[in-house]
Write a structure and sequence with these properties.
four-stranded mixed β-sheet, 254 residues, 2 domains
Length: 254
């Protein structure tokens, strides 16, 4: 078998059919070669049109889930809990990788990981991972606000609470910018509650909290379904009913 293109695919790690065509020289030759490489175990087909090179020593895919998620299409990037994992802040292993993109992606599973499409998201706050420029991910501030908006994509309020306990310093300007991009009163409530609760680690100041408080509106809202049916505690400042179990996990930092 012609192995001369294998080294090129190794360098790419994860690659599309188009990228394979650029290596091989023609689309038809690329398809024939990739089919042969897949049968030989040199390459794995991740999904239609997406491939990854295989380490010949252990026959495993070279690329990790984060690189694969970033290469699904040109606009793809990691978000929510997957972004926290890249930032080194997750508390539990996840077999779901959350991928955002301006182009719709059909969910699929590869080597035990489900790649879940979560929509396009807001337009700003996407960066490249400092240890691997090929991995695209929401920055820390965007990840926090995204996850406050959809805690179900972050393991739930309790997992998010644990993450925020160890969250590094946040850029308050970015936090406010992303909140304004969403422009949801319920999100101002959630952000105010959690950022006040864990204000020491991310260094959240009183001025930002006061601003968030002014934008919460007057209606009471539930943080999650767990807080309904008598299972919640009302936080007056934020007009938010939060689960009793969340309040029992730690006192407010002051």
């Amino acid at each position: 078998m012609d192995m001369k293109y294998y080294e090129d695919f190794l360098k790419l790690e994860v690659f599309t059919l188009q990228e394979a065509r650029e290596v091989v020289g023609s689309a038809e030759n690329a398809k024939v070669l990739l089919n042969a490489y897949v049968k030989k175990g040199l390459v794995k087909r991740v999904r239609r049109g997406l491939y990854c090179a295989v380490n010949l020593e252990n026959r495993e895919a070279l690329a990790n889930r984060y690189l694969i998620g970033s290469k699904i299409n040109k606009g793809a990037y990691l978000a929510y809990h997957s972004a926290f994992e890249v930032h080194g802040l997750s508390h539990q292993a996840s077999f779901v990788l959350y991928v955002a993109s301006d182009r719709k992606i059909s969910n699929f599973t590869f080597e035990g990981v489900t790649y879940k499409y979560v929509g396009q998201g807001i337009t700003d706050g996407v960066t490249r991972y400092r240890l691997n420029e090929k991995v695209k991910v929401t920055d820390l501030e965007r990840t926090v606000i995204d996850s406050l908006d959809r805690p179900d994509y972050c393991g739930g309020p309790h997992e998010l609470d644990e993450i925020l306990k160890i969250c590094p310093v946040l850029d308050e300007g970015k936090v406010l910018k992303f909140l304004e991009a969403y422009d949801k009163k319920i999100l101002y409530k959630k952000a105010g509650y959690f950022l006040e609760r864990h204000r020491q680690a991310p260094k959240i100041g009183n001025d930002l909290l006061s601003l968030l408080e002014k934008r919460t509106g007057k209606m009471k809202k539930y943080l999650s379904e767990e807080a309904t049916g008598g299972g919640g505690v009302f936080k007056k400042r934020w007009g938010l009913i939060v689960p009793k179990t969340l309040e029992e996990r730690g006192e407010l930092f002051v």
